[in-house]
Amino acid sequence: MSLNYAIVGATGNVGTEMLQILSESALDIGQVYAVASRKSIGREVSFGDKSLKCYDLETFDFNKVDLVLMSAGGDVSKKWSPEIASTGAVVIDNSSAFRMDPDVPLVVPEVNADAAMNYKKKNIIANPNCSTIQMVVVLKPLHDHAKIKRVVVSTYQSVSGGGKKNMDELWLQTKGIYSNDALAPHNFPKQIAFNVIPHIDVFMADGQTKEEWKMNVETKKILDPKIKVTATCVRVPTFVGHAEAVNIEFENDITADEARDILRESPGLMVVDKREDGGYITPIDCVGEFATFVSRIRDDSTQDNTINLWIVSDNLRKGAALNTVQIAEAMVNRGFKGRLGRV
Question: Model-level pTM?
Fold first, then answer.
């Protein structure tokens, strides 16, 4: 049975990726509607080999669709996701607006796909934070094997995690430095070109940033509330691709070799771990890829049953658009039949 889809935020970085990935998916797709703000009315976006004209969010009739893939920012989601959900469509929301709502499932299909079917209380499903997604895909099979106690993670997050305006700022600052016409920081608190900034999202009362808090609470909601997570989140001058250095302590025996074998057999993952020059994945290598990559898997000699590893993923794909489409796939595979045949 074909379902109708709307992509809200269709002209943004993630929205265009959603359209591309949806067009490549195995889903039985009826109609697809590109929806954006009023200023984008009539603008054309690509859906496979087709072009779609954008509709205005404020006037579009969501009664025509079964699933809405929402990537228009937190403020827009807070206002519009409940309104859209009230029409009977199910919203898969990419913002942070509903992630910690106890009535909204927070889903990474490789980890907790069944939770997607708990959408009925609000007709909303939340897509987790990009840095959380790639980490929990790796943690899940290891947790099943040896039970994780504690995670210490430092992130190296690309500027695209903050949208096109942040990508533009990196580009313009870099050009300006070479032409002796440096651009002052606007979207970042400090210069991002040729720099790293240990500050993503707002600071909280305890000194951590909200991005760091998200990685903690989202991991607990998705995977296990008993896992302790401490994070340092850093913005780096790369355009696409988030990387993470992760230290994982387990309750039960596990070695790096065992972890490597487990991860090689786990869904959504690709292990590239050669102990030689270039035998690992970097952000530039992962751009455009669906997989989450794992490298530098090794024992931590300072702590029993503890391993270190390096995780890299395309944040616009698995960290956002791909995970959203995979949630839709998980729902269909579990019997979701749209507004006319709810399960």
Answer: 0.95
